[in-house]
Amino acid sequence: MTLGLICFPLSLVVTYEQFAANCDAVRQRIKSACDQCGRNPSEIRILPVTKTNPVEAALYAYRYGMRSVSENKVQEGQEKKPLAPADLRWEFIGHLQSNKVKPALKIFDIIQTVDSVDLILRMGRIAEELNVKPEIYFQVNSGHDPAKFGCEIEEAPLLLEAALGQSSLRVVGLMAVPPIEGGMDSAKRTFDNLRICRDDLESKFKVKLPELSMGMSGDMEAAVIAGSTCVRLGSSLYGPRTQK
Ligand SMILES: *Cc1c(COP(=O)(O)O)cnc(C)c1O
Q1: Looking at ligand 1, which atom is closest to the CA of residue 112?
Q2: Which of 91, 21, 79 is nearest to 55 (CA)?
Q3: For residue 160, what are the β-bridge partners?
Q4: Which numbered atom of ligand 1 lies nearest the CA of 93?
Q5: Using one digit for the tens of pLDDT, what is the confidence trace for 194-241?
Q6: Element (H or E) spanning 114, and its range?
Q7: Residue whose CA is at the smallest distance from ligand 1 atom 12
Q8: What phi and psi, each to the nearest 5 degrees, are found at residue 71?
Q9: Is 4 left (phi over 0), alpha (psi -120 to 50) or beta?
Q10: Where do the domains of the chain lie?
Q11: CATH topology of domain 16-238
């Protein structure tokens, strides 16, 4: 394991009490969104995004009762996971390079950003070799963002076909990140397109894809209204990040 290449701030800016208050506030926002569209808040899980923050961020989440956190760099997971309780799950939400699949599968229980057939075949083989059965999400570029990773909506059936052929992978749903510059309308379109893509895959393949990972600190209400089951929250829990 390589240590010390990524510099985390030594401590978090927020105290645990502030973090817990932030969690309560976020849950209230989710509840209000649910009230607007008749959903049950228990259908939506909060996935803390601990990237760029020290392991204390994950320990706060654990203390609050959460059992999953997420990172967008494999190395950050490698550095933090050994310092956290063993029953905390680590989910990967960053772009996954093919040469990082093996280290990623050693650390992360869930990979939310699978976006090509090549990656699926490689991941299936390596998961089998490591004797793990990761849950995967397909990252879909449902906001048609030229700058974003993720497969195109039209490619999603090819990915699903490939993944269903890999007995070591469990496809549970789809994930999307809206265009950064697009504003709320384009975020809503991104979320609606992701849900429609999921519904189409379910009816075409007669499988269940229950999870829709969509919504971040700035757009969680719109995501919940569009059907999100997992909101990935960083700054609304831990305060603004100093790094990307
Ligand atoms: C950083 C990140 C988030 C969290 O963003 P916030 O706006 O801080 O909530 C969510 N999803 C992905 C993929 C990220 O990289």
Answers
A1: 13
A2: 79
A3: none
A4: 13
A5: 999 999 999 999 999 999 999 999 999 999 999 999 999 999 999 988
A6: strand 110-114
A7: 93
A8: -135, 155
A9: left
A10: 16-238
A11: TIM Barrel (3.20.20)
pLDDT greater than 50 at residue 1: no
User: For residue 113, what are its two tokens?
Assistant: 């950003």
**Tens digit of pLDDT for each residue in 63-115?**
999 999 999 999 999 999 999 999 999 999 999 999 999 999 999 999 999 99
203: CA distance to ligand 1 center in Å?
30
- Find the residues whose C-beta lies inside 6 A of ligand 1: 49, 51, 72, 93, 177, 216-218, 232-236
Identity of residue 166: Q
Backbone φ and ψ of 172, nearest 5°: -115, -15
Atom of ligand 1 nearest to the CA of 113: 13
45 alpha carbon – ligand 1 mean position (Å): 15
Distance CA 79, CA 106 (A): 12
Closest by Cα among 68, 69, 64 to 53: 69
- What's the pTM? 0.95
User: Measured between alpha carbons, how far is 36 from 99 in angstroms, rounded to an integer?
Assistant: 44
CA of 234 to the centre of ligand 1 (A): 6
Distance 205 CA to ligand 1 centre (A): 30
> Which of 30, 49, 114, 142 to mutate for ligand 1's pocket (most ligand atoms within 8 Å of CB)?
49
